[in-house]
Amino acid sequence: MLKVTPTDVLSKHSISKNDTSTPASLKQKPSIPIVLTIAGSDSGGGAGIQADIKAISATGSYACSVITAITAQNTLGVSAIFPIPLEHVEKQLDAVFSDLNIVAVKVGMLADCDIIKVVAAKIKQYKPAFLVVDPVMVATSGDLLLKESAISTLKSELLPLADLITPNLPEGAALIGSDVPTNEDAMGDMICELRQLNVNAVLLKGGHLEQDENSNDLLIFQDHFQQLTAKRIHTHNTHGTGCTLSSAIASYLAQGHDLLQAVKLGKQYISNAIAHADELDIGSGHGPVNHFFAGHADV
């Protein structure tokens, strides 16, 4: 997939430098990069499309969306999943790509093989500059969100197109067919097999190692990896953390940051959102993170 920076991607509405009839004030008007999220809807508002739009907006980009499934969901769990008909998923994709200057795409919940294939085909057709895939398989509550039969399709059709995939430990284990690691040594043992997924980079998230003092992630490239460390924050309100992080990374990529810096900024953002999560009182189960912490707190 062709990779270009946001400054290389010109909107069809961009003003020519030679157009002297355009007022200077319009020529100098800054543009906000557009980020598309392709994911499922969370009726509880803490994860999925709703979390993605909040994170993209809070980190300074413009969010648009394509909904792949409707979940009946709250902080206690997922009670039903209704996949959007394929024709309508395709029409949503064509609608936003044909009109909006989308710089980065974040992909989340896709539910089944057919939707994965449609999304992959449209990514190949429209060639956005950046693609971040959060291989959503299991909700924070433990509910299965991706059919097991669809994992191979995800690996063959979509992951090779991505600049970055962001699995947590259970998702990473499912992608390579291993046991879920229970310590950092076992987490490190996953590196070689994750490199065989034919992806540009993998952010393996260590948040499930709850016994550790820090929350350590591994940013894995083909020839090296880097450990990213943050202080572990103890809270029951962690619903939507993966959606939020991957969306923030896509937002920062769209703004022109390189991959390493976008990941670091995304990790900083989600750490703050988790740190302020207990300021919210949402539901009786795993509450959401606080996406807009900066708007009403000293950070």
Automatic annotation (TrEMBL):
One of its GO terms (cellular component) is cytosol. Its EC number is 2.7.1.49. It is an enzyme of class 2 (transferase). GO terms for biological process: thiamine biosynthetic process; thiamine diphosphate biosynthetic process. One of its GO terms (molecular function) is phosphomethylpyrimidine kinase activity. It comes from the Bacteria. The keyword Nucleotide-binding applies. InterPro entries: HMP/HMP-P_kinase_dom (IPR004399), PM/HMP-P_kinase-1 (IPR013749), Ribokinase-like (IPR029056). Residues 42-290 form the Pyridoxamine kinase/Phosphomethylpyrimidine kinase domain. Pathway: Cofactor biosynthesis; thiamine diphosphate biosynthesis. This is hydroxymethylpyrimidine kinase. It comes from Moritella yayanosii. The gene is thiD.
